[in-house]
Design a protein that fits this description.
195 residues, mainly alpha, Lysozyme, 8 helices, elongated
């Protein structure tokens, strides 16, 4: 009789444990805790710390997407440097926006440009979130089809992704006529920093 009671107690404990585990898993999956840190820490005071934090965010996002949809690191880093002045811009500070990503919906978080209140920029909770949005835009927006086509050609031909060539396809990314040349100069500068 004692064995049967012991077996029943263990069975009940096991069933409660399975139920509890399943419930916690379901809640965590469909209703994640918003207070859990979602992105890696990205704090900086120097250019080197900015590069380290940015690289951490890029790596974080690259782990979640197929290799064929990744953006070359040097291109991502150089555009963020140009758009934010090494992370020191108002847009970077107030909106966590590292790529000058514009907003078109007033109901979504945004900040207005100082010089033209009609221009809005997306506001992000975390700088790494803007890195993910930049990757998403280049992979999905129709304005960047030429970029995707060239990247696909480079991958198909088993060539390394050439940031200098790829950036030239982003003529719709900025209204600045010499945008590609400016990004290429920063690519050169960052590469020279690592020599």
């Amino acid at each position: 009789m004692n064995r049967i009671t012991n077996l029943i107690d263990k069975s009940i404990t096991l069933i409660i444990g399975i139920f509890y585990t399943f419930t916690i898993f379901t809640i965590g999956t469909f209703f994640p805790n918003q207070y859990v840190i979602k992105y890696p820490i990205f704090e900086y005071e120097t250019e080197v710390e900015f590069l380290d934090g940015l690289q951490t965010c890029i790596t974080y996002h690259n782990l979640t997407i197929p290799e064929s949809r990744r953006i070359p690191n040097s291109m991502m880093v150089s555009q963020a440097i140009l758009e934010t002045g090494w992370g020191s811009s108002r847009l970077s500070d107030e909106a966590n926006n590292l790529y000058g990503i514009k907003a078109f919906d007033e109901t979504k978080p945004h900040v207005h440009a100082l010089e033209n209140k009609k221009v809005m920029y997306r506001s992000f909770e975390h700088k790494c979130e803007s890195v993910g949005e930049y990757i998403r835009l280049l992979n999905n927006h129709s304005a960047y089809k030429e970029f995707r086509d060239l990247r696909d050609t480079m991958i198909t031909m088993n060539m390394p992704l050439d940031s200098r060539q790829l950036i030239k396809t982003l003529d719709k990314y900025s209204e600045t006529p010499d945008y590609a040349e400016r990004v290429i100069r920063i690519i050169d500068k960052v590469e020279n920093m690592h020599k």
